[in-house]
Amino acid sequence: MLKKLALVALVTAVSVSSSFAADKINGAGASFPAPLYYDWAYSYKKDTKNRVNYQSIGSGGGIKQITKRVVNFGASDKPLNSKKLAKAKLFQFPAAIGSIVIAFNVKGIADETLKLSNDVVADIFAGVITKWNDPKIAATNSGVKLPNEKIIVVRRSDGSGTTYNFTYYLSGSSENWKNSYGVGKAVDWAVGIGGKGNEGVANLVKQTPYSIGYMEHAYKEKNHLSAAILKTANGKWVTATEENFKAAAKYASWTKEDNFYAMLALQPGDNSYPIVAATFILLPYEKPAMNKKVIAFFDYAFKNGDKSAKKLGYISLPEATKKMVREYWAANIK
Length: 334
Hints:
The protein has helices at 2-23, 34-48, 59-67, 82-88, 118-125, 135-138, 161-173, 175-180, 197-207, 217-222, 242-249, 288-304, 306-312, 319-332; strands at residues 25-29, 52-56, 73-76, 90-105, 152-156, 193-195, 211-216, 226-227, 230-231, 237-238, 276-284. The protein has a domain at 100-248: D-Maltodextrin-Binding Protein, domain 2 (3-Layer(aba) Sandwich). The protein is α/β, with parallel strands linked by helices and 334 residues long. It has 14 helices and 11 strands. The longest helix is centred in the N-terminal third of the chain and has 22 residues, at 2-23.
């Protein structure tokens, strides 16, 4: 009798395990939205028992893994144009909006007190400005005690959508950057030490005196770092706040026909924070059954995840955009 009960228990356990395995969704890619996806996945499992496993490996890795069909969905902060999507046989839609901040570690300079114009940021990351007390930095920071210390640049070591959006911003801010380095998930950096993922950059800035690096806003908050005040495309100083992120995000010109391709950096408006970016999900054409499970997760997040987004420093998609994304799902995921 005991053997029979044990056998029944074993069969039941295997059945339950298989059921959960069937409902498990595997995704990988951008570190930019990872804290948000982890939070959404935790809530989704609690409410539905379905599991979403997400690996923060960078946008480049996410694009590669979904292109090779290693994962069920890829995530990238670098949107793919329709030609590239068609070649890889992928669908694309936005999931959330975030922002990139310029974080620094300089003793005596508090959060949101250091002003860095966009061209100065470009010159720092190009290795043109190398000292914290450089006259170009001092010119916009009267009263701030700038040390006579070398600037330690921290940047990404992996293929990154955060880098893509950051270099897009730099190219729009500096002709030197545009002509010398351009826009890309990875560029030929002139200076700096590399960290893997937003996590790696944040940790290096936190541990390295006189350092400066770019990262998604949530990582700055999580690590209690200081961030610079930047300039809008209209030339007004702005801090990294939800209101200013939203001011930029409202200019997004997404369309279903273009697979939601859009860049959000350097938008017009006096309050538009200059480095805002959307993060995207990539799905394969030929996996409709699994795609429906993936979009069930993101539909759940669209309905229930706005509070998490706000808590972590992200911007939820506007309701009109969510409606557009659902129409895109209905037309393509069959």
